[in-house]
């Protein structure tokens, strides 16, 4: 099992150095420039990492007025494609599963009172991007040159993941059959009191949905978003339509675009 407790205690590269040096380190056309499997990953000494390094970099903004949806946007050089000087990544499905496992293990919570994304969330996202990319790089020779399905990603993660992967359900934003809509499946994800997770694969990209009981929904997307990096979107379940609108806008999908909704169940 991956050491998420270590990730949450700062077993990661110094974020402030990435912010300072990320643009200069993107100097290769190779899609997987961060594929060195050696133990030296170029990270800073753990003693130099403090909460102050994280708390000022991922600011929250409301999606729009009175929408009850909030967005935390990472800087450009913190995404699956740019973290630690990379120039591309197909590891989104692996990264999404690892983040889901981390949230399940440590029971991370998030609410709109956090004007800056809390340290555990920043470290979890960055640590899982780093680990997911490394896992993909080590298995790259045997993998298809595309995004991985949830089942394929679980196989690559191996013993770092203790979960079962459901069959993918084709869903889209608008459909005459309610169970085929993203809204319906998100409500189903929040139909019990525990934390529930699902991957959504659309347009060749995989993102993570998290349902926090019957109260709120979360999206974690490790991809680049124009001039911003990874993204976290939080919405209240009572305003699920606004949450779906924010997700649709961030992913750039049409009402009729089908994706695969795949629920992930972790072992207790």
List keywords for this structure.
single chain, 268 residues, alpha+beta, nine-stranded antiparallel β-sheet, 8 helices, 21% strand, globular
Distance between the termini: 13 Å
Order of helical and strand elements: HHHEEHHHEEHEEEEHE
Beta content comes to: 15-25%
Structure annotation, total helices? 8
The strand count comes to: 9
User: What's the pLDDT, averaged over the residues?
Assistant: 81
Helix proportion: 25-40%
Structural class: alpha+beta
Shape category: globular
Low-confidence segments, given as residue ranges, are 1-5, 7-56
User: What does the radius of gyration come to?
Assistant: 17 Å
Q: What profile does the largest beta sheet have?
A: 9 strands, antiparallel
Region (Disordered): 21-49
Biased composition (Acidic residues): 31-44
Description:
The protein has 268 residues and is of the alpha+beta class. Helix content is 32%, strand content 21%. It has helices at residues 4-8, 15-25, 51-55, 92-106, 119-139, 150-157, 182-189, 240-251, and strands at residues 60-62, 69-75, 163-165, 169-171, 195-202, 205-212, 216-221, 228-236, 259-266. Strands 1, 2, 3, 4, 5, 6, 7, 8 and 9 form a 9-stranded antiparallel beta sheet that branches. Strand 5 (195-202) and strand 6 (205-212) form a beta hairpin. Helix 4 (92-106) crosses helix 5 (119-139). The longest helix has 21 residues, at 119-139. It starts with a helix and ends with a strand. The relative contact order is 0.18.
